[in-house]
Every structure is written in structure tokens, then in C-alpha cells.
């Protein structure tokens, strides 16, 4: 897995989402766990290990902040210890350790951050934020863990607003659970 280059200051925003076969990314806690496997946990672990910053939208931040500070283990330690940037126009403060609000111009703040030295910026879940950053051309890699389930309804990552978004497949793997890991980079 490629990582941002600390020496040159080139950082990447790497987005990771759980997705159903029909493109739903909303509320994975309701359908994802039936397919959880060591292979999938390894992918998530690599994404966290390759980053030095966690980027979250408001809803995902609130969900994570309610759970992860009370968890233990390697993943919990990684998430709890790393800096967290929160994109929100409605929150006045953030309480989870090492968290900070990005401010009103998220695109400008992240464009500047990508120019600073560091490792990958891990964008987890956060559907609205992921869409916004894809449209702005700021997502450098898209990791999709596509689950073999059709949900029929729910928010999808790609909508009519997304428009045309050419992507290059840079990696694919099929897990024993039937989940397919797809890594794309914008063309």
C-alpha cells in the first residue's frame, strides 16, 4: 500500500468505506458485521497504520467518539491516539482526544494540509464529506470493501451530483467472506 511521502510533504487523502453490492454506504453497522473477517480487519488496520491523521465528517465523528474512547486494543489505541480532523458546520467543539474542527472552508484547509509533511490522511465513512472531496479532486485513493449483500435502500456514495468520475483500479482482492476489496485512484 502506497503511503504519503513525509520527505516531500506530499500527503494523500485515502478514503475507506464499506459498501453493499447495490452501492449503499449508509449505516454499515446494520449490515457489515455479518461479513467481518481477519482479511477485512487487516485492510482497515493497514489504512490506519499508513496514516497519521483521521478525517471525519460530523455524523461519523459523533458515532466514533461515542464508541472508540471506551475500546481497547491495537486499532482503538491507534484511533484514540492519532490527530482527528472534523468537518462540521454545526459542532462548536469536539471532545474526543486529539480532535479539532476544520473550520468553514474544508477544501482550503485540506488542500493546505496535503502540502505539509506527513503520512496519509485517513477519511473513514463520512459519506457527505467523501462526496465533497471527490468533487473537489482531493481524494487520492478510494478503498471500497464491497459486501455481497443487496440492501435496496440507503444513501449511496455515488449520486447524480457526483457526475463523471474516471477511476483507475490499482488493486482488487476477494475475501473468503465474499467481500471484495477494491482500491481506485482518480484518473
Layout: helices, strands, pairs:
Elements (H helix, E strand, L loop, with lengths): L12 E8 L17 H12 L1 E7 H10 L6 H8 L2 E4 L11 E3 L4 H9 L5 E5 L2 H9 L5 E7 L19 E8 L5 E7 L1
Parallel strand pairs: 1-5, 1-6, 2-3, 2-5, 3-4
Antiparallel strand pairs: 6-8, 7-8
What does this protein look like?
Pfam families: RibD_C. One of its GO terms (biological process) is riboflavin biosynthetic process. Residues 13-180 form the Bacterial bifunctional deaminase-reductase C-terminal domain. InterPro entries: DHFR-like_dom_sf, RibDG_C, Riboflavin_Biosynth_HTPR. This is Pyrimidine reductase. The structure is a single chain. With 187 residues, this protein is α/β, with parallel strands linked by helices. The chain has a domain at 27-142: Dihydrofolate Reductase, subunit A (3-Layer(aba) Sandwich). Helix content is 26%, strand content 26%. The chain contains five helices and eight strands; from the N terminus they run βαβααββαβαβββ. The protein has helices at 38-49, 58-67, 74-81, 106-114, 127-135; strands at residues 13-20, 51-57, 84-87, 99-101, 120-124, 141-147, 167-174, 180-186. Strands 4-3-2-5-1-6-8-7 form an eight-stranded mixed beta sheet. It is globular, with a radius of gyration of 16 Å. The model is unreliable at 1-7 (pLDDT under 50).
Amino acid at each position: 500500500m502506497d503511503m504519503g511521502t513525509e520527505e516531500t510533504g506530499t500527503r494523500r487523502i485515502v478514503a475507506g468505506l464499506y459498501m453493499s453490492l447495490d452501492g449503499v454506504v449508509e449505516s454499515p453497522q446494520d449490515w457489515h458485521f455479518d461479513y467481518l473477517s481477519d482479511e477485512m480487519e487487516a485492510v482497515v488496520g493497514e489504512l490506519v497504520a499508513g496514516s497519521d491523521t483521521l478525517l471525519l465528517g460530523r455524523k461519523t465523528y459523533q458515532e466514533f467518539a461515542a464508541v472508540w474512547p471506551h475500546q481497547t486494543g491495537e486499532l482503538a489505541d491507534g484511533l484514540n491516539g492519532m490527530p482527528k480532523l472534523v468537518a462540521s458546520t454545526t459542532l462548536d467543539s469536539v471532545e474526543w482526544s486529539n480532535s479539532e474542527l476544520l473550520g468553514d472552508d474544508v477544501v482550503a484547509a485540506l488542500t493546505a494540509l496535503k502540502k505539509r509533511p506527513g503520512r496519509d490522511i485517513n477519511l473513514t465513512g463520512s459519506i457527505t464529506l467523501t462526496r465533497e472531496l471527490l468533487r473537489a479532486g482531493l481524494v487520492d485513493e478510494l478503498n471500497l470493501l464491497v459486501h455481497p449483500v443487496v440492501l435496496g435502500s440507503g444513501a449511496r456514495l455515488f449520486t447524480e451530483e457526483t457526475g463523471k468520475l474516471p477511476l483507475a483500479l490499482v488493486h482488487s482482492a476477494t475475501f473468503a467472506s465474499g467481500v471484495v476489496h477494491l482500491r481506485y485512484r482518480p484518473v
